């Protein structure tokens, strides 16, 4: 125990000397630096702290400037969406996917590693910004009933509330609609090539004539969805654990094909329990 106490005292003394604490304390006291035996405390740690804070300030300014540029562009688009000119509206709404895809530096954090990103990572890496992603998603939700025929290729609408949306004939290639609520949405004739619909709620959704080439329908809820004349259904990437109970107007052979590829037919409560059981068993 005594050995531990001696070690602890020695450690605290070293910490006091080398952390810059002693230097700060001595700055508030009168001290004769020429006194016999006096040793000037090291300040390297304080220098590193000062450098880190300075780099954080530069990184934070750089991040905010990049974010402001994207937000200003988004503001300009949103301000004009109330136009009655359908062609102009379509042109404006189609600017949203590229805006969402704009990359900004990583948001730096002074408190890293407890939150967000290391300061230097903000200088070295860029990625799509989560704030912009959320804002663009909310904009699409707000105008969901006027999206017929628009090109939203590549946009991230995961978890979006698109109930009763009109996305008929929309270009939705490689769009992320995972977990989206599409209850009673109109997706007739939509191009869903490579789209991610995993976990989406497609209850009573109109998918007639939709192109589903390489689309991911795993764990989708398709009860009472209209599947009349869906295109390339045999090339669907995954339909595993999708609930196809009560689907309407499915092409000949689709029902058997879906069950053979992992789809199920269950009431909603039983299906949810099934998904939880499957997730727990992994």
From TrEMBL:
The chain crosses the membrane at residues 44-63. It comes from Candidatus Kentrum sp. FW. Keywords: Membrane, Transmembrane, Transmembrane helix. The keyword Nucleotidyltransferase does not apply. This is Pentapeptide repeat-containing protein. The keyword Transmembrane applies. It comes from the Bacteria. SUPFAM superfamilies: Pentapeptide repeat-like. Signal peptide: none annotated. Pfam families: Pentapeptide.
